[in-house]
Amino acid sequence: MAFGFGKVAPETSQLLTELGLSRRDLTPAALAALERLAAERDVLRAKLEGAEALADRDPLVPVSNRRAFLRELHRTMSEVERYKTPAAVIYIDLDGFKALNDGYGHAAGDAVLAHVGRMLLDSVRESDIVGRLGGDEFGVILNRATAEEARTKAASLSEAINSAAILHAGVAHRIRASFGVHAIAMVEDPETAIARADEAMYADKFARRAEAQAFSAF
Which residues are catalytic? Predict the structure, then answer.
């Protein structure tokens, strides 16, 4: 027996398709039950998507946490391997952050981290990914960027951080940043890529320290 041909909500129509049913297969009572199920499923899906977004977010800074960053880095590596497009990862470390934290308290340190996170987000493309890798360390995934383009971008980000005055509790804090760049290879894992960018960052940090010591000797 075929039942009515009344219109159904889009979410109900989708569920009917997934179940391999048509409107004609159901009694009015069965259709009403299916409509409730479809509505509840959409609500549940929205809650799950919201929970996943929160789970991917750093609890302090408005950027991705390390877990989400690694997942996106893995996805980027897959695209590099499949499409042979360039990409790079930048590792950023805040110099002197521990001294600031110890001298002015964790609230000041948190304000600096949040400011740096927002600054990084505002300074990259929507296709790029910013994450907090731990403590005062940040990472940026630059999609479709060569190593030279990534180094230029890293220098620009570092300069923006170095020149910023971050105001907290009436005190203007200044922080410096060291960075390392690693061009993503087609055969490597995310942790290795981050480690290599980290090594490049330390090389940059030590080079600047040596340069500063040599300058002060004159």
Answer: 136
